[in-house]
Amino acid sequence: MKAIILFDGVCNLCNQSVQFIIKRDPKGYFTFTSIQGETGQKLLQKYQISNNLDSLLLIEDNNYYTKSAAALQICKHLNGFWKYLIIFKIVPPFIRNSVYDIVAKNRYKWFGKRDSCMLPTPENKNRFI
Predict the structure, then answer these.
(1) Widest CA span of the chain, in angstroms?
(2) Is residue 104 domain-resident?
(3) Which range marks the domain in which residue 52 is found?
(4) How far apart are CA 32 and CA 27, in angstroms?
(5) I need a labelling partner for 51 at 20 to 30 A (CA). Which of 14, 37, 80, 95 fits?
(6) Are the CB atoms for 112 and 12 separated by under 8 Å?
């Protein structure tokens, strides 16, 4: 089963992260959906996650991960040295998540915001649900 990444579809940083993951996931392990979309909203309801989520969300093997845990779990499946970032799981979550929260809180200010969700390219369309 493929893992699903829910992302903020209007966030430039989040959209760039999706493109980054696609380039380093040639086997297509990850699929993507925006949190704002119908599929994203249904998944949030299914897993009883707040709509006010200020995080990337990974659903994998009927478990979900948020914040730094999601980012590290995603890195584990990427090509290249990125998979070795899993070592940061030794850092206590409250420390990892406090850094994550600073970026999340400032992502629109630092990276900008779109008026609408990105449209996948024809080559990547099958990766989006």
Answers:
(1) 40
(2) yes
(3) 3-122
(4) 14
(5) 95
(6) yes
Amino acid at 9: G
Q: What is the pLDDT of residue 71?
A: 96
Neighbours of 81 (CB within 10 A): 8
Per DSSP, 125 falls in state G
Residue 91 DSSP one-character state = S
Q: Supply the pLDDT for residue 92.
A: 97
Give the helix, strand, coil percentages of the chain, each rounded to 5. 50, 15, 35
Instruction: Give the pLDDT of the chain (129 residues) as one tens digit per residue.
Output: 689 999 988 888 888 899 999 999 989 999 999 998 999 999 999 999 988 888 899 999 999 999 999 999 999 999 999 999 999 999 999 999 999 999 988 888 898 877 666 666 777 788 998
The answer to whether the CB of 31 falls within 8 A of the CB of 128 is: yes
Which residue type, as a one-letter code, is found at position 15? N
